[in-house]
């Protein structure tokens, strides 16, 4: 079941399938909300940048779960943005194959262990040497999100069944990062 | 190859204008295509054809002393950065054949991230960019 609910601190909230067109609608919704809430342009650009990468990660992974219709609606992809005291929190969730969990966990942990300069270095080496597919990939998305957010990427995996778990990814764009330039 | 390649901008793809007789290449706008490889393929192919042409015609480097490359991007996603690098890598090979490649990177003065993205690409491809805050 699709839903779009807007509370006071919730800037955007969505649950349902994610395709390229829906991502476009959500980006337009973000623009409308930031205008209505008079969110500064610099903040909007940082939110937008993280939002595109976090949603494209779900979109790129679609093919691994879109045919497992038994997962829906209880484990359909989710996305929301909240304005909290510490900054803006962007959260995505989607089913993930259990066999892919370790690789993803290692990848995020690797990124989380790096400081700002380390992230720039990794971005450059991945840009030059990373594997690439038609939908993107090359792991650049996570590095980009970490660069913008200035905080560690939080994640969790909650088991659904023997094939799938539900993967949640949380990116906080801290007030410090928001005021950095 | 055609003298020019023009791709109009959309809500999620940039304007691309490659012009051999004017020796000018322009990339302008937003880039988050649904399929980055498919979107950038015509531009990359045009540049590869140009590279081949220059390689095959020894005198072309005298006819074309330089190429002016302009990036006026307002946003591009991480997948697009890989494609922009591929474009720059072809230009670097053309540069190595003796044709001067001048890259101008325009960015919004309030958008430090766009400046850093330009720095990343410049260092990754080892071509110095001229940066212009506007």
Give a nutshell description of this structure:
Chain A has 181 residues and is an alpha+beta fold. Chain A has six helices and five strands; from the N terminus they run βααββαααββα. In chain A, a hairpin with a 4-residue loop joins strand 4 (154-159) and strand 5.
Most residues in contact, chain pair and counts = A-B, 31 and 24 residues
Shape of chain B: globular
Give the second-level CATH assignment, the architecture of chain B. 2-Layer Sandwich
What is the N-to-C order of secondary-structure elements of chain B (H for helix, E for strand)? EEEHHEHEHE
Largest β-sheet summary of chain A: 5 strands, antiparallel
Distance between the termini of chain A: 40 Å
Number of helices of chain B: 4
Strand content of chain B: 25-35%
Sheet with the most strands: spatial strand order of chain B: 1-2-3-4-5-6
Number of domains of chain B: 1
What is the level 1 CATH name of chain B? Alpha Beta
Helix/strand/pairing category of chain B: alpha/beta
Keywords:
heterodimer; A: 181 residues; alpha+beta; 6 helices; 5 strands; B: alpha/beta; Transcription Regulator spoIIAA; 6 strands
Question: Layout of helices and strands, plus pairs?
Answer:
The complex is a heterodimer of chains A (181) and B (134).
Chain A: E1 10-15, H1 20-36, H2 41-61, E2 78-84, E3 87-97, H3 101-112, H4 116-129, H5 140-149, E4 154-159, E5 164-174, H6 175-178
Antiparallel strand pairs in A: 1-2, 2-3, 3-5, 4-5
Helix pairs in contact in A: 1-2, 2-5, 4-5
Chain B: E1 4-7, E2 15-19, E3 24-31, H1 36-56, H2 60-63, E4 66-76, H3 78-96, E5 100-107, H4 112-125, E6 129-133
Parallel strand pairs in B: 3-4, 4-5, 5-6
Antiparallel strand pairs in B: 1-2, 2-3
Helix pairs in contact in B: 1-3, 3-4
